[in-house]
């Protein structure tokens, strides 16, 4: 998809007019019949009206009614996606988006809804099954939008597209090594440094959690470090993002029932969010020192697989009694969180499709967030989350939940009880941190069985826009 600015509206162009009220229609050269048709449709509560002039189509999109500021941006993104549906439905390839009454931010939100909604994953469709959306080009006609705004939108959108692609790719393609290679490709493009630890290096570092999960796999694990350290960084200590990169989760010997396994190629969505977020941050050259850590492997029940009952010595030297091999995300994240200590970080945020419990509790409309010694940062992250509509619901880090992880024979076990699974997972991870820390569980919003406005079916890329917005807020203060 191409988005640019246009200084004129060619008479043959398809145009979407963004307007606040029917008063704005006066300047738009509609005939009297057309105006009365548009007004009738508006009376019938339509927020988008299509006028077919045969050689072109004109659309009126109405500003959303009474909603709060953040909800307003979201309502406009959703409106943009709805307009996109009309355009693709009418096989339109090019459109001008024109407004004299919307603010620059509102126009960008509208186009963002269009661009994100136009994502498709067609790599494995062939012949007539490969139905490509018609829309290819959007021109913005408005003084309120700069080329810089458009560039920012396009980089963020391409980061989201990439993140969605990684999740949508089946594990036969998206192995741990491939995931690392994708990070390297984006890092090379943006000018960030990407270092990939191979199995040998991971063994020499004694990353016991990552190696234990990998034991049942025939493919080697990877540990990727994606670093953006600009000379003009505003921070002394880095922000560190850690993403769960389980490229496929069978559950291991604690095998998942097949209807739960079906979608488990999505279990690297946290890693995809970190790679996409790091790409946007570095490509747009935000003056902030940020590091992404991505432990990656698949989780399988092959001959040498780790077993329920195994005791694993982790990267930090502590021991874990593995009572369920399906609680593998915390095993690989724990090692990455321990590794993060060496950076003396300002804040570490991990993001993971960690528990079915989080998804059952709040569904796909939000992620679960838990904080440790990071009150102010957590408030800031939630503010960014509301802005980009990747919302966070806070769960407690109360110590009593940690008691559920006591083991008879090791320092702790890798599962709590039947209850509060999202919280005990967070408590497990907390043990491996000694810095301000936020844990995000995206098991609900990472992957959709059917599309939800501009969040297309499959991988959503959730987390990418959140991380970019959060780091940008560090620059603007
Ligand atoms: N990858 C799953 C969690 C998940 C479930 C992600 C649904 C996305 C959608 C994770 O590794 C897992 O299996 N968690 C277990 C933990 C349990 C064994 C303590 C779960 O949530 O059931
Ligand atoms: Zn699992
Ligand atoms: Zn998992």
Overview of this protein structure:
It is a single chain. Helices cover 37% and strands 20% of the residues. It has helices spanning 32-43, 69-89, 104-117, 147-168, 176-190, 199-204, 208-214, 258-261, 269-283, 329-340, 356-362, 375-388, 399-403, 421-430, 464-476; strands spanning 2-5, 15-19, 48-52, 57-62, 94-98, 137-141, 193-197, 222-228, 239-243, 245-249, 290-299, 311-313, 319-321, 347-352, 367-372, 392-394, 412-413, 437-441, 447-448, 458-459. Strands 7, 8, 9, 10, 11, 14, 15, 16 and 18 form a nine-stranded mixed beta sheet that branches. α12 links the parallel β15 (367-372) and β16 (392-394). The chain is elongated. The site of one zinc ion (ZN) has 4 residues, from loops.
Largest sheet: 9 strands, mixed
Q: Mind telling me the C-alpha Rg?
A: 24 Å
Residues in helix, % = 25-40%
Strand-residue proportion: 15-25%
Separation of the first and last Cα atoms: 32 Å
Average per-residue pLDDT, rounded, comes to 97
Categorize the overall geometry.
Answer: elongated
Oligomer: single chain
* Count of helix runs: 15
Ligand types: ligand BES, zinc ion
The class by helix and strand makeup works out as alpha/beta
The number of E-state strands comes to: 20
Low-confidence parts: none
